[in-house]
What we know:
elongated
Amino acid sequence: MKYFDFDVSINSESISTTQGKTVSIPIVVKLISGVPQEVKLTADKYSDVDIYTWFSDPFIFPPSSTPLFIETSCNTPEGQYLISVNGKSQEILRNGDNMLSFVVKPNPNCKSPPQNRNDPIALKNKASLLYERDKLN
């Protein structure tokens, strides 16, 4: 009997977006051998610079794929970031083998003055967006 084994791959080496946007990229989990087991996917986040990641479905059985979403804000500094995508089953950890180069470009629409952090409408909108994002995690 063959032991379960899998591989996680990213369908791109580099992706770019502008500040304040969310992009997605397919993540593929391949079955190498054995009977498929559930694999939990995770990806690096940079919360200190407002880069958040989540999967449409973080628990999948190979062979399968799921989109990785990468969200930025107008406060995300422009530049290049490396995002590691990891997969873990009960027996195997595929950690950091897959690195995605993520480039954040300036967004001219983000040059407006920052919103008042106590503005109730802005706080409600941000809470709503965070709630929707967290429901997917």
